[in-house]
Amino acid sequence: MVENGKKILIVEDEPEIANVLKMRLEANNYQILLAEDGVEGLNKARTEKPDLIVLDIRLPKLDGFKVSRMLKFDEKYAKIPIIMLTARVQQADVEQGMDAGANAYMTKPYKAEDLLAKIKELIGS
Amino acid sequence: MLLKDEQVLLIHDFKTKFLWGIRLRFGIILASIIVYFLGISGQVGLLPMVKLLLFVIAYNCCAFLLSFLKKQYKLWEIITIISICQLFDLLAVTLLIYFTGWLESPYWFLYLVLIIVSGFGIFSRYSKIVFIIALFSAFFYLGLMLAAYFAVIPVYGPQFSLPPTELLHSIINRAVFTVISFFLFAGTIYYFSQALTENQQSLVKKNLQLLATLEELKEIDRLKDEFVATASHELRTPLAVIRENTSMLHDGIAGAVSEQQTKLLDSATNNIDRLAAILDNLLNIAKIQSRSLELKRSETNIGQMAEKAISLLQGLAIEKKIVIKKEIMPKATIWIDQDQILRVFINLIDNAIKYTNLGGLVEVKVALEEKGIVCQVKDNGIGIKAEDLPRVFERFVRFNRAVEMSKRGSGLGLSICKGIIEMHGGKISVESREGGGTTFTFTLPKVETNG
Hints:
The complex is a heterodimer. By secondary structure, chain A is α/β, with parallel strands linked by helices. Chain A has a single domain (7-116), classed as 3-Layer(aba) Sandwich (Rossmann fold), CATH 3.40.50.2300. Helices cover 43% and strands 18% of the residues of chain A. Chain A has a five-stranded parallel sheet, with helices on both faces. Chain A is globular and about 40 Å long. In chain B, helix 2 runs antiparallel to helix 3, helix 4 (109-120) packs antiparallel against helix 5 (129-149) and helix 5 packs antiparallel against helix 6. The two termini of chain B are 60 Å apart. Chain B is elongated. In chain B, the strands form two sheets. Chain B has a five-stranded mixed sheet, covered by helices on one side. Chain B has a two-stranded antiparallel ribbon with strand order 1-3. At the A-B interface, helix 1 of A face helix 6 and helix 7 of B.
């Protein structure tokens, strides 16, 4: 498998979802990093500087909105695009997500082609 | 006598009510001066009237000054002040009657005024006050009559040239009549004030009950929202896993798949999408029901929404060789929630296509009228039975013929449409005949927007 040099950080506490995401994205030649909670996600984002972050909202220790805000309001990491991928679909959540600086808000279950298209749109393939 | 709470209220209300009482008295003084100078009160000596007026003005001024003396008065102080004022009022009225011809004076009705005022004044909470004032009025009045009869005091006004016994009879008649009227009056005021208090109390009770129920309902609503959010999450996560697993198998990421396997996986993926759609619909129903679905209104060309829906469903129509005819007014703009109304169009047009046979016709009309937008989705499909029509907008209702026609459908679409239209303040209705097609009509009223 030829990697295309793009790193994606997946911050998701449900291992099954994290795995299917990893499988799908690796099949599309992205390099994957995983984080299981908000704090780990934030740390990995800062140390590894991924090209894109796929972020769940319901996370232990630190929720997705906070992680997104902390990254977006720090100019060192603000440029990293964030896709919020979550089961929370209320209008209020979408708005909160956008307020927190998310570049895109997708709901589960997602269509793989939609997610891949969005990623491609944000960082190329 | 008075409950603790009532005592507190009385002390609190004292100043305001007291000042009103003083204003009322000054008003009456003014009125009587005018009446006097208009000559209506008949033959009255000027000097006694002046003395009386001065007396009344004097004690009212005292009362006025007194009200500014202390910030808050104790209960016994209030009772003393009010009682003295009340006695002075009674005295003033009695003097007035005395100066204007005692037996023949028309001013005895002022006792009734005092009775009424006591019923609404500071002591109104102690409703029997009216009887006390009636009693005192009777004392003062009778006192005056007797004093005049027995010539204890000089008599003003016309001299009565009647023999003593006849005069006595006159007095007794008058007195009895007058005193009875005092008590009748007091009784009436008492009765009505009691009724009023009872009413107020039962109203207050009912209000409290309603407030308590409202709090309960709010809590239930909050719990329901929490439940919906949690359930939504719990259902979506496994759905996401299944979908991706299936999808990846289908896409060959886990190894090569045969054509047959691809078909099966395709079907599985489609059904997961259906589940997700139903889940979305359920969430929407729950939100619309609890009115937490907020409309995001914007100036929308509603014709464009109709066109969008039609283009989305064009594929389905073509499959069944159904023609979609459009009669859409081009510049029909209205202040609505774009996405929700698009959803309504999609639902209605999807239904029209689903329940129409091959080669049928679906008409979509959008018109802008005086009162707002009127839209219609008409088909010449299988129609709805007359007995089923009333239930068409109910949740989870799908009629047998609909199920035979198409397996797709959760029975939620029309109830969602109804909810959305009604949230916009509009109305939706249906006309149909079995085998003769169905027409859905909905209206959206114009909204007054600021600026």
